[in-house]
Amino acid sequence: MDVDIKKTDNVKINFINADQLLNSTDIIKTKKNLDKLKQELGSLFEYELSQNIRQNLNDSVYQAVFNFYNTAYISDLEKEKSKLYPDLEDRKDKIISAFNYLAYHFGDSIIPERIIYLNKLFSQVSCSQTEIAVGLENYISPKSEVIQSIPNSQLYQWQRDRMDIQYLERDILLNWIQVQLFNEMDGKFAEHLIQAGKILYILNAAFPKASERYVLRYKKEQMEWANQNEAIVWNYLIKQEVLFKNDLRMRTNFLNEGPKTVGLADDAPDRIGQFLGYRIVKGFMDKNKALSLSELLKVRYNTILQTYEIK
Q: Domain locations in the chain?
């Protein structure tokens, strides 16, 4: 899926570190920067910040914002996050490169106007139609003192295991692709499998030189398990007769992030349904190499499913 992106190598995205601007012990500076951000940024910024301080952004809200960033816990988080800042410039180049690939396939209208780094209290990435908000606290080292101080009942071990800055650009693109190219649906389990596969296949196109393990966000041993047990998982789904049922429990167990895929062996990685959907879509596209990604979006799930062959 590696293509020549020279013709679309002109993506312009504004990166704004709102945390860096708002995290201050000088309330006058906080007010000045908050006023500027409110003027420049869209509704996503206001919504995310209002969630943090638990009130709407009115003229006197700067006091609540100042208090939020100067609480001991948030202050410690922000101090630890600042260690990531030197790495963000290199990450920025990788993010822009990925959006260049996306623009090659879907046009410039797919590009966000800005990416905002803003404390989201461990909710990871959210998107509007024009902006992306990213909580960098999700990428702090899990070995850091501030993360170690959080009780396991508030931040589970599997969530800590996912805290890795190398996946920043991957997570940003994944969430953006989901919002921009796909609608939420309440359909058959197989429909959700194929949609998850399409999302990951397009994500792979945005990172054509990346490994499948990176795209799937799997560790080496997780990828090995998925590869070795693909046929077993498929046969399990057939035996359970769930593919053509609208089954919320199965979707949650097989597609959502978590410590594992519920219903399978204890060492089964989470999101095994996403892995399976990706394999099915990739197999379909390998057989239909002339098909564009835009055309892939329109292909019905059962058409893709019929081509699946377990290797």
A: 6-179, 184-305
